[in-house]
Amino acid sequence: MTALTTPNTRPITTAAADGTLHAAPIATTDLSAWFGKRKVLERCSLRMEQRQVTALIGPSGCGKSTFLRILNRLHEVVAGAQISGRVELDGVDIYGNDLSATEIRTRIGMVFQKPNPFPAMSIGENVLAGLKLSRRTTSDKDALVEECLVRAGLWSEVKDRLKEGGMTLSGGQQQRLCIARALAVRPQVLLLDEPCSALDPISTRVVEETVRELASDVTIVIVTHNMQQAARVSERCAFFLVEEFGEPGRIVEAGETKKMFDSPEDERTLAYVTGAFG
pTM of the prediction? Predict the structure, then answer.
């Protein structure tokens, strides 16, 4: 019940000359996870393709968010948390001995369910916060702030307010600010944990449009309980389920979103996406 640490056979992808990173696939093989003695995931294998949105769906408590947190090594910060199996970014084991968690989290960014701008920072400072945490620099901070806010669909709304506090924004704007902050370190993968669950329908639509636009450059993995949202934003889905109380979550089925919703192979998938349970 420990993370595999097989040495990597090649270095992780580095930034291109213009500072950008190319989207990369991320994949798990036989991934299991524990909190102490309690097993929460059982042998989950899933490939999340580059420049696509993969939606993780399933009832509450089936391990979707845990799976997501493992993808950028946040699981390991919990006392007693352990994993087995492999997680590979573009073929490189992210739990390898020669890679730090900080390096991985610049490659694989994460946006959480509740918007979390840094309250003591301005809008512009929030965008650049990741650079400070990862000890990176940029030759043109203003250009980077504008670029990331544009990509997050927020620039036109805040371009004259960059020195105002991040907490002065609405909930939907705060979430897009968090997306801009994640983009500033040039990630290859962006993880979104129910990013619209606390937002109104208009803000949800804007965030979904932002996700679809970002998918042309970044691999995106999103946890959602909203089946309509999964159908709108994703090319592929993975259905997680706990069969019996106390058992770990498993991936029942994964594949193209349209097929998963129209003609899934497993009757449990059909029951869930049609609202028979969950």
Answer: 0.89
